[in-house]
Amino acid sequence: MGKDVIIACDFSSAQATFDFLDKFTEEKPFVKIGMELFYAEGPSIVKEIKKRGHKIFLDLKLHDIPNTVKKSMAVLSKLDVDMTNLHAAGTVEMMKAALEGLTREDGTRPILIAVTQLTSTSEERMQKELLINASINDTIVKYANNAKEAGLDGVVCSPLEAGMVKESCGKEFMTVTPGVRFADGDVGDQVRVTTPEKAKEIGSDYIVVGRPITAADDPVAAYRRCVREFVG
To answer: Confidence class of residue 204 from pLDDT cuts 50, 70 and 90?
Structure first.
């Protein structure tokens, strides 16, 4: 499994997204399409970006009753995305149903990963507001184990937890890590962050990078720096 940098294309319109992707004349970066863009433009944006030759991580974080998630995943699997996700908090049963819905008749399917805890959630908030009394690390490792039990490929977690997830679930279990900033950059609204270089050391398989690339003066140079620091 090769390491890769995924660019979070958190734009509000197709036009803004294509203006950004047009800057990449040599590379075809792996891109993440999140709720904002998908809700604004619908499935057509996925098809168009795919047509341009990009791999796509469709980041919709499904979380509902198992049957609804299963049916929704069956729809998403037709979009030919490379990776998609759901909330591990939806239970093992929901994750198994999602996997079933995502798997096509020929047995192929996108990579399916589960969100453990959002990178904006601190341990204090988790305990105080969500009434989860365990530590955030124990919670994340438990959710990762649930995802593994359900047959998923890996989890979304902050780079700070990637090492302990690998330790508990095995090195083949994938870690996709947002919350990555350059050492000399701004952390924004995320609490649990690290650098591309450090994420590589810890054992992240994919890093998801948004504003440090999309808001950079030279996004292509920022992307190449990220690849250089993370992939080597």
So the answer is: very high
Distance of CA 63 to the CA centre of its chain: 15
For the annotated catalytic residues, the residue numbers are: 61
Give φ, ψ of 134 to 5 degrees. Answer: -70, 165
Task: With H, G, I as helix, E, B as strand and everything else as coil, classify residue 107.
Answer: coil
> DSSP for 93-128?
HHHHHHHHHHS-TTS---EEEEE-S-TT--HHHHHH
The span from the CA of 214 to the CA of 232, in Å, is: 21
Average pLDDT, the chain: 94
Give the rounded percent of residues in the chain with a pLDDT score beyond 90. 85
Under DSSP, the state recorded for 22 is T
Report whether 70 contacts 98 (CB < 8 A): yes
Question: pTM for the complete prediction?
Answer: 0.93
Which residues neighbour 21 within 8 Å (Cβ) at sequence distance 6 or greater? 9, 31, 49, 52, 54
- State yes or no: pLDDT of 193 exceeds 80: no
